[in-house]
Structures are given as C-alpha cells and as structure tokens.
Amino acid sequence: LLNEAITKGSITDNPNPDEDELLAHYIAIILASHLDKNLWRRFADVESKRFSSKLLLEDPECIIYMAREFEINAARLRELDIYNEKLALAFDVGIKVWDYLKYMPRNDPYWKLVNRYLLKGWVLITYKDLTRFIEEVVEAKVLELISKAYENADETKQLVDALGGMAELKEYRSKMVSRAGLKVQITGLTPPCIEAIMNETKTGGNPSHQARFAIAAYMLRRCHDIEGKPIEDCVEEVVNTFSTAADFNEKITRYQVEHIAGLRGGRKFYMPPSCQEMNSLGLCPTNLGCGVKNPLQYTIKALKKYEATQSIESNKAS
Cα(312)–Cα(308) distance, rounded to whole angstroms? Predict the structure, then answer.
C-alpha cells in the first residue's frame, strides 16, 4: 500500500475491502513514519485524494455526514435561514466562515474568500467543493497520524524490520536525493514540471487543483510578461490548454483563469508557485534539479541560453 502510493502516486482499489485493508492502512502509517519526512506528504496526498474520489460517488447525505465527522461546521443550504430558490441554483452547502478559512486549499485564488459568496457568516459552496475541503482535512489527519507514529518510532522499529518491504522505498528516496544534487540540462523553454502537467492535461488526465493553478499561473505570466501578449489573449490560450482535461467546463475554467490573471475578484495577477512549493506538492519531477527558484526563471534562463547560441552562430556566419 505505502510502496504503491509513494512510487506510483496512486493506490489500487480493492473491490472487496475488509478488515485486512483497514489494518494495512495503519501498518502503512507506521512504515511511513520510518521514512524521510519528505515522503510523508506524498503518502498523505495520495490517501486524501483516494478518499475524496470515493466520497464524490456517495450521496449528499454522506458528504455532509463526513464533513461533520471531521468537525467541519457544514449544513445543507435548505436547512439555513438564508435559503432561497435562486441561491439553490448555484449552491448546495454552507460552511461557517471560520471553518472555511481554516480548511480552504491554499495557493489557489478559486478558494479565496473574496471570490466566494458569504452571507450571514456562511460561505456557500457546492457538494464537490465540500468534498475538496474534506480532502484537505484528511491529508492533515494522515500527516498527524504519521507524526504521532514517528514519536514512537523506536518502539515500532522491530515491527518494521519484521515486515520488511522497505528496501524499494529507501531506494526510491535515495534516487530522489541523488537527483537533487544534479542539475537538469535546460533543453527547452518549458520547465519539466509544467511540461508534465501539460502532458497529463493533453492526454485527457485530471490534474490536481494545485497542478492546474501552477500551469495556469505559469502560462499567463509567460504569455503576458515574457512574450508580451495582451492578457485577454493569454487567458484564451490557457483555457484552450485545459479543453482536453477530463472534467473540462469552459465557463468554470474561464472564470478561474480570469481570477488568476487578475481580471476578476481582488485583481491580483498571480505568480506560479515556487520550485520549493512545487516539490513539496509532488509536482517537481526533477526534485529541485533545475537550479532555479521558480518555473518562470527556468524559461528566462532558457531564452537567454537560446539568444546566446543564436548570437554565436550569427558571428560564425559573418
């Protein structure tokens, strides 16, 4: 379970889950506590995404129930005194504003309070958004469990040694560490992290919210700041890029991209996440091997390298 989550970034579903699977998750948490802390978040991220993908298949009653189990103060819109038919066309649920601020996903303008409908202390959202909130809580809970297991690592060392199966994970981590000391050769204008997300999108994949924000912010900044195109044209390019995503909705995508471009909401034009952030989110395929601090910096260095090469070739020709 742990091996699959960390090395493949996913967990194969068991069509007939039983008590053994529950035990396997607890054992995976104990095993994870004996790994490098950089791998904790990767495991927690996979577990939380697996949980939310299953929760989305459940009925609304179950989603509300799980939110309350995780101490998110959520209620169906029809149960609130602010209910009306117009609101019900756009929203399903209300979350108390303090819980919203506590659990909202970071680094994505889509979730910023200024871009949300706030009424009498309730932030109004859809069931899908509530599931995303629960995903954030699950990730935090898994990290908390691993951290507690880490405090008792000495007591569980014998169990880990007896179970075995850690060799491949340690080898995986050692490869990541060894790659961190290497510098990736800059061969194109697009950094490897953005290239990977673009490829996933082009092949009908379903990138995470963080990945979507990263690629949108990068493409908008590159298009506008580096290539000098009007921001409206840049928005069109980004929206078209997302058109092949599995869950593409043009209206929602355009709305979110315009927020990132500073055309809506707080009018802030966002920068893409730093390389450190991308790596912590599991979105850096080179483990900080590009030698830059931000994906845009990679493109700027690549352009300078290209211009220098062109200048040398021009001098040779003359």
Answer: 6
